[in-house]
Fold these 2 entries.
Entry 1:
Amino acid sequence: KPFVEIHDVAMRYGGVEGTLALRGTSLSVAKGEFVAVVGPSGCGKSTLMRLVTGLWPATEGTVIVGGQEVVKPLSVAGMAFQNPTLLPWRSILDNVMLPLEVVEPHRRRLRTERAAYEAEARGLLKLVGLEGVEKKQPWQLSGGMQQRASLCRALIHQPALLMLDEPFGALDIFTREDLWAVLQEVWLARRPTVILVTHDLREAVYLADRVLCMSSRPGRIISETRIPFSRPRE
Ligand code: ADP
Ligand code: ADP
């Protein structure tokens, strides 16, 4: 059954005269499905992500996640962007642990189970090759390292929905492929519903069940391809 449903949304930035970033876009993503979104710059991929996560309200249409209409930012979704947006005054470890302070039931458990959660955060950092920098501040790390840390932050609370907007854009090809394996491992183990925006077709085909292609002026989904797979599924 669908976990994310987008019904005929339109998005216009900046009032009636503003840019029509999306029009007539509908999409249904099943629970546990991995969808990739590709398309040229400016076709509305990030806009689509903002509507699903409730960071912007749609000008028209409705967005439903987990059976509920999205009317405010979805704090339960795990999000990672090309721009890592780590809090500069917190260590890498504390940045990764941030969603645990916001999302229930972790928020409640954090007080008594901090050590276990911290071990989990350290484990995730190790998985993405960031062992040893837990206590550093974000500005002491390269852009690619910060990006990997923000992927850990997106995963730490085991979200049912993962929204990833070019999360590997700043990484060299070798690190990027390592992270594909990490993301696939997490997806196979926990089966979150994933929407991934990428410019890398190889990445889309490697990771996703379904690849959506968008076109601009105004942005909309123009095609959809199901990927037949040899990789492990069940
Ligand atoms: P993509 O992620 O595919 O590059 P975006 O969703 O960022 O595309 O942008 C789609 C269109 O909306 C573009 O024309 C862009 O200039 C415009 N746009 C995006 N964000 C804003 C904003 N905050 N204010 C005004 N226009 C915006
Ligand atoms: P949080 O608000 O995420 O719990 P902290 O507990 O680390 O963050 O910091 C408490 C508040 O102190 C923050 O909300 C922030 O406004 C402010 N603050 C601390 N250090 C800085 C800094 N280096 N730059 C900007 N604001 C800071």
Entry 2:
Amino acid sequence: MIKIRGLQKSFHDQEVIKNIDLDISPGSVVVIIGPSGSGKSTFLRCLNGLEIPNNGIIEIDGLQLDFSKKVTQKQIIDLRRRTGMVFQNYALFPHLTVIENIIEGLITVKKLPKIEAIKIGEKLLEKVGLLTHKDYYPSQLSGGQEQRVAIARALAMDPKVMLFDEPTSALDPELVNEVLKVMKDLANEGMTMVIVTHEMKFAEEVANEVVFFDEGVIIEHGPPSLIFHNPKKERTKKFLSLIQ
Ligand code: ADP
Ligand code: MG
């Protein structure tokens, strides 16, 4: 369902993503691991059009963008609509309540009537266990709760794939599991997910595929049993030995 071919992205003359190919099948969970600065965030940002690749093809659910040609703003918007993204720093709108944060896109982008948007928003808040907090402001939530709202907000737009960029890295340790649990539930429901994370236990449990990035290339990828327990490449072994 997601096909990436020859993806390339440079900042000035630094090539950060170097000719990446990757296929992601529907309903699968792909975990990306790799050292800091290896291009993981840039890769995710390319997938949802926050960065414009210099070259390559991204195909998501029938929409194909070929960056070797001119890509229109409309194509970028279409790409963004197919992808939901959750960042390390939750980035909720501070002046809006939880429910207002969630329905904002439904009203302004999808043009749904407010009543309908609220219905969808409440259902999603129930899913992430925060319906009771719908009228709270972000400042009244814990980091873990904010991140669960951020997930609900991304889901509200009904994306084809959810992209997570280190969603638990900024959290106090005791708040990490509540966010991972919501992500696990999503995976079990069949959501297609691409997750950059350092949570190896989670990756081992949930990932169908682990991708090891280094210096803008995929060094190796495969099921967690292979990448974590029987990596083929020296660089993968070295990285894993440093983090475990
Ligand atoms: P990771 O998420 O794996 O830590 P990033 O994708 O954030 O890596 O960054 C990869 C490289 O690209 C780094 O060297 C970083 O400094 C550089 N980079 C990322 N974003 C920008 C940007 N907007 N402008 C210039 N350089 C950037
Ligand atoms: Mg990053």
